[in-house]
Design a protein that fits this description.
The complex is a heterodimer. By secondary structure, chain A is an all-alpha fold. Helix content of chain A is 49%, strand content 0%. Chain A is elongated. The mean pLDDT of chain A is 89. Classes of the chains: A mainly alpha, B alpha/beta.
């Protein structure tokens, strides 16, 4: 499942927002979430993607910005691959 | 001064989720106490409670329910019932002069319990940002204010087991003094959380499970062993009698007296003298003689300390008449709703006067020579001509509240 699809699932589960109506280029505000919903959503995103999003970094305009933010955090915070130990 | 009437009732309780069902079950002597299914049950010594048969999704969409602690869910359902029962329609101007006085002892305890669980047991990096707005004690009252657009005074009273009786009494004062148009008054409690149950168990006040769990709470019985924790909400609509008559509202009863006193004694032990002063002060406020009281809904927790102190205090206040006045503890059936208990028992008293039937104290099987009043054991009693009742609420911390009501005709 893509990041966008997982985000859409969260938005539907928590706020009953229909994923089919979500346009990634649309402003984030078009979702109609209030400030409490936004912190609640980011808490859910952190759990869903197993990442930490520093709250001071919450800068985004469109829904695509949120997708990018999440993907960047996943990439930066994913554990390094195990070292390749050659058999003796 | 305005006469203050009760024009709407709302109940979510372990013995029914409407005022009618609640009262019918009390009259039938039906207990809401039982074992309850929770993961943490094996770690508790006492595994019974009086739970409400309540599914939030029957009342709210999932997107709303997840933002409301159970204590607010109960409160909103009871407030909605009460407003509907009262046929309440407020103009914008009236909404500015109407409010909510609300009582809860512990607020959103299940929310707090699960946040601590995540933090301490699961080492969570964060807890839900909804935790604080869901758990805070005033959340339920605020949700009522928001739902009904009430812009007058919105206050949450937290005086442990007298919280919602205090809320009703203080709302009565506002209407009496003409300082509010309509008040939503009552309380809610939803504290059947692991940490809370464990805390009460440690304190040694909870009833041991009887062979029939429904028979575990035994107020005024020699074989008493404490109270059973309950949950639920009870709300009333208060307005001036003139206002209710003008709009042709059905009047359930009239609040005629209220006292709020403090024992200034001990943090948990009730004071016989303090309880007597509370009842005496309420009678004086109602300007009636002790002989006018036809029914006392006792605080009746089924702890030894309360049973003895309340019985002795009633004798002190009512003298010779004490033995002639029916006194019952409906907690034997609906359990102890802590902060919501006062409002729930006030509604039981209102309906008792309205229907002229006194609900019983169930499980009173072994007479206690120290408790020798007429506790209406096991069978409800028809009392034609019953006009006036007293509802007692005493609390940890020593804040007592007594409400006196009559038929309001």
């Amino acid at each position: 499942m893509t990041t966008l699809e997982r985000l859409k699932q969260l938005l539907f589960k928590q706020y009953a927002i229909d994923g089919a109506l979500i346009k990634t280029e649309a402003p984030f505000d078009s979702l109609g979430l209030d400030s409490l919903d936004v912190v609640d959503l980011f808490y859910a995103i952190e759990k869903e993607f197993n990442i930490k999003i520093p709250t001071e970094n919450l800068k985004f305009n469109s829904i695509q910005d949120v997708v990018d933010l999440v993907e960047r955090a996943v990439q930066e915070q994913s554990p390094p691959p195990p070292p390749n130990i050659a058999p003796q | 001064m305005n006469r203050v009437v009760i024009s709407g009732l709302g109940v979510v309780s372990p013995v029914g989720n409407s005022s009618g069902e609640f009262f019918n079950n009390l009259v039938a002597g039906k207990s809401g106490v039982g074992r309850f299914p929770e993961d943490f049950l094996p770690r508790l010594g006492i595994r019974i409670a009086a739970r409400c048969a309540f599914d939030a999704l029957d009342h709210f969409p999932g997107t709303i329910a997840r933002k409301l602690d159970r204590v607010s869910q109960f409160a909103l359902v009871a407030a909605t019932q009460a407003a509907k029962d009262a046929g309440l329609e407020l103009t914008e101007d009236e909404k500015r002069r109407s409010g909510v006085y609300f009582g809860t002892g512990m607020g959103g305890m299940t929310t707090l319990d699960s946040a601590y669980f995540q933090l301490l047991k699961e080492n969570a990096a964060r807890v839900s940002p909804l935790g604080i707005p869901m758990a805070m004690n005033n959340a339920a009252a605020s949700h009522i204010s928001i739902q009904f657009g009430l812009k007058g005074s919105c206050i949450t009273c937290s005086t442990a087991c007298s919280s919602s009786a205090i809320a009703i009494g203080e709302a009565f004062r506002l209407i009496q003094q003409g300082r509010a148009e309509v008040m939503f008054a009552g309380g809610s409690e939803a504290s059947l959380a692991f940490g809370v149950l464990m805390g009460w168990e440690s304190l040694g006040t909870l009833a041991r499970e009887a062979s029939d769990p429904a028979a575990s709470c035994k107020p005024f019985s020699k074989d008493r062993s404490g109270f059973v924790l309950g949950e639920g909400a009870a709300m009333v609509i208060l307005e001036s009698r003139d206002r209710a008559l003008r709009r042709g509202a059905r009047i359930h009863g009239e609040v005629i007296g209220y006292s709020s006193t403090a024992d200034a004694g001990h943090i948990t032990k009730p004071s016989e003298e303090g309880l007597a002063i509370a009842m005496q002060t309420a009678l004086e406020d109602a300007q009636i003689s002790p002989g006018s009281i036809g029914y006392i809904n006792a605080h009746g927790t089924a702890t030894l300390a309360n049973d003895l102190a309340e019985t002795r205090a009633i004798k002190k206040v009512f003298g010779e008449m004490a033995h002639k006045i029916p006194v019952s503890s409906t907690k034997s059936m609906h359990g102890h709703l802590l902060g919501a208990a006062g409002a729930l028992e006030f509604i039981a008293s209102v309906l008792s006067v309205q229907h002229q039937i006194i609900p019983p104290t169930i499980n009173l099987a072994v007479p206690d020579p120290e408790c020798d009043l007429d506790y209406v054991p096991d069978q409800a009693r028809k009392v034609p001509g019953l006009t006036t009742a007293m509802s007692n609420s005493f609390a940890f911390g020593g804040t007592n509240a007594v409400l006196v009501l009559n038929r309001g005709i």
